[in-house]
Design goal:
Blueprint lengths: L1 H7 L5 H10 L1 E3 L11 E3 L1 H10 L12 E3 L9 E9 L9 E8 L4 E9 L5 E10 L4 E10 L2 E2 L10 E3 L12 E4 L10 E8 L9 E7 L5 E9 L7 E3 L7 E5 L2 E7 L6 E18 L6 E4 L2 E3 L7 E15 L8 E8 L3 E9 L5 E8 L2 E2 L4 E4 L17 E4 L9 E8 L2 H6 L4 E7 L5 E9 L6 E8 L7 E8 L2 E10 L23 H11 L4 E4 L23 E2 L33 H13 L13 E2 L1
Antiparallel strand pairs: 1-2, 3-4, 4-7, 5-6, 5-8, 8-9, 8-10, 11-12, 12-23, 13-14, 13-24, 15-18, 16-17, 17-22, 18-21, 18-22, 19-20, 19-21, 20-34, 24-25, 24-26, 27-28, 28-31, 29-30, 29-32, 32-33, 35-36
Helix pairs in contact: 2-3
GO molecular function: serine-type endopeptidase activity
EC number: 3.4.21.62
Catalytic activity: Hydrolysis of proteins with broad specificity for peptide bonds, and a preference for a large uncharged residue in P1. Hydrolyzes peptide amides
Length: about 600
């Protein structure tokens, strides 16, 4: 009915149309308290009332300008003063109003209002307001008692883009100087490695300065861009029930014997991968969503999924009946660190300082790393540490190891000859040496092999570490490898043993399995859109299967339809397409549609195709 009134009087405002419809209601005792109007809307009365209503006359004179600068340091929250330059002619202006607008220029929420007083400059104060989703700027419009001018970009109303002011909420977790690889005195060169902040949403880049520490900062050397990295973070009522462990960019999650009604969301970032090693849930109803994929039932494991760069969401849900043994997976993030290369130059401070920045605003203090100038009369620089060490136990007996460790030299060490030998030692999980190993001479860029005779692993040893040395001693840099006993390495997990806990409701699980067919990946979720919803196009990847076609040719081709027919498509959420094929269902649908269309008699609506 509202559409009918608007077609008749398109200049009416929404409030006017609402009032017209409510005033046209024919009251009925039978409908009192059952519908909002308390009766039936009378179309004739509504159209007669619409013809007599004066349409709104919004101002023709817009404000001359609008200005705003965010001064709120919290990211995503804006604060400050919106300055409005009044219209030159305020004869039709009662007030000015400020709206958020999207990047595409669509009106969003109102932010404030101020009366037109005749003053040239007016202010709207904004105190700690969250920016709406998709908001990109502000528009100031003029209004009066009858209406407002449109709040949109490109019209006569002035607009301004809003830049969210903010300061980083955290800094890098760690920074390390990998060592000087230029052995000239007074010159340093090498790589600075940073471990990204746990959440980079408040960081746009990390700035690198020469520094003497304690706030004495020198010139800017360069920067490392942030990539939106985020360590996994769990939210939801079931998070406390999930066993989570983390180490060096690897995060393992385990939920054993889950219960009804669980829900948890894990937010993280890619690139990376997820390896599912155990999975057993109620088919179809209890799911673990990984990006656009949903896992359910008992898929074959191990199952690996690649994570693209950018935000990643994992969502766990169990319904109110039927449980199983749960799941285990490991999430590995591969972009946890970044390197900054310092070319050969004279040091302008005792070290380097890493300072996080958000759109031009830095934290007052950064993370300081000392830079040592190495020369040829010192032990090897950490920059000459071995590139890697590898070891495979060739003795399958339990509690015994044997084989050979292969040390791969770094290319820069091989080029300048500052390393004369390599030392191999046994170390504990923290890298502390617990037993000395062997030594072998360096051989340029060729791998160095150090045999390990048959022996039990030294007490407390879990790693092998390799270091570079010369006549002045061992260098501080090292490469390490896990020390694994071949007999203790578990076989690959190729099965998925389930211990169902169905509480006597196996029938539902069997029905779900028959319905889904494939028990690996239950279904693909529709891609999440980040663009403005009013700009989204239909999902092109969706294919509709024709369940039932009419035998009548005019319904299968729009070009073949006679001029007296109108073809259209209607989506009915929740309606099973296969059930709609039944003649009784189609007939009921056709009758309901005919009853809702003016000037369409019963029997003049026909379903042509169901998909």
């Amino acid at each position: 009915m509202a559409a009918l009134v608007w077609m008749y009087r398109p200049t009416l405002g929404m409030a006017q149309v609402r009032d017209i419809l409510m005033d046209s209601v024919v009251r009925s005792e039978a409908l009192q308290g059952k519908v909002l109007a308390g009766g039936r809307i009378n179309a004739r009365k509504a159209l007669e009332a619409a013809s007599a209503v004066e349409p709104p006359h919004p101002p023709l004179h817009a404000p001359r300008a609008v200005a705003f600068k965010d001064v709120e340091p919290k990211i995503g929250i804006v604060g400050g003063v919106v300055n409005i330059t009044a219209a030159d002619d305020e004869s039709d202006v009662d007030y000015y109003k400020v709206y958020w607008v999207s990047q595409a220029g669509f009106q969003l929420d109102a932010i404030g209002k101020v009366k037109a007083t005749g003053a040239r400059l007016l202010e709207v104060k904004v105190a700690g307001v969250a920016m709406p989703q998709f908001a990109a700027g502000l528009v100031a419009v003029a209004g009066n008692a009858t209406g407002e001018m449109p709040a949109q970009i490109g019209g006569i109303a002035p607009s301004i883009a809003v830049v969210d002011f903010g300061a980083p909420e955290m800094g890098p977790k760690a920074a390390a100087w990998k060592g000087d690889i230029d052995l000239r005195s007074g010159i340093v060169a090498g790589a600075l490695s940073i471990t990204r902040a746990a959440d980079e949403r408040s960081i746009t880049q990390y700035n690198i300065y020469w520094s003497n520490a304690h706030g004495s900062r020198g010139p800017l050397l360069g920067s490392i861009p942030a990539v939106g990295f985020m360590e996994p973070k769990c939210t939801g009522p079931a998070c406390s029930l999930i066993n989570a462990t983390s180490s060096a960019g690897r995060h393992q999650y385990d939920r054993l014997d889950y219960q009804d009604g669980e829900e948890a969301t894990i937010l993280a970032s890619g690139p990376g991968s997820i390896k599912v090693t155990r999975f057993d849930t109620e088919e179809y109803y209890d799911t673990l969503s990984v990006g656009n994929n949903e896992l359910s039932g008992q898929p074959s494991v191990p199952l690996e999924l690649d994570l693209p760069a950018g935000p990643v969401t994992l969502y766990w849900f169990s319904d109110d009946s039927v449980t199983a043994t749960g799941w285990t997976f490991e999430l590995v993030q591969t972009d946890t660190t970044a390197d900054f290369w310092l070319p050969a130059s004279a040091p302008l401070g005792r070290g380097l300082e890493v300072v996080p920045e958000f759109r031009g605003t830095e934290l007052p203090e950064g993370l300081f790393v000392e830079v040592v100038d190495y020369n040829s009369s010192m032990p090897p620089s950490p920059g000459f540490a071995p590139a890697a060490v590898r070891f495979e136990d060739l003795d399958t007996a339990a509690g015994v190891i044997a084989g050979a460790a292969v040390i791969l030299p770094s290319q820069v060490a091989a080029a300048n000859g500052s390393v004369t030998y390599y030392q191999l030692d046994f170390a504990d999980a923290d890298g502390a040496v617990v037993s000395l190993g062997g030594r072998a001479d360096a051989n340029g860029s060729c791998p160095v092999v150090i045999p390990i005779a048959t022996m039990p692993p030294p007490a407390g040893a879990s790693k092998l570490i390799a270091r570079a040395g010369n006549a002045f001693g061992l260098g501080a840099g090292q490469a390490c490898a896990d020390l694994l006993d071949a007999d203790a390495i578990p076989p690959p997990n190729t099965s998925n043993v389930s211990r169902p806990n169905t509480s006597g409701r196996d029938e539902r699980r069997l029905q779900a399995q028959a319905k889904s067919g494939d028990s690996s990946i239950a279904k693909a979720a529709r891609p999440r859109h980040t663009s403005e919803p009013w700009l989204q196009q239909p999902h092109m990847g969706e294919k509709k299967e024709v369940i039932w076609p009419s035998g009548s040719a005019p319904f299968l081709s729009a070009s073949a339809a006679p001029q007296s027919r109108i073809l259209g498509a209607i989506s009915v959420p929740g309606l099973d397409a296969h059930a709609a094929v039944e003649p009784e269902v189609r007939s009921a649908f056709e009758g309901a549609l005919a009853a809702g269309l003016p000037h369409v008699a019963e029997g003049r609506v026909e379903v042509g195709r169901i998909s």
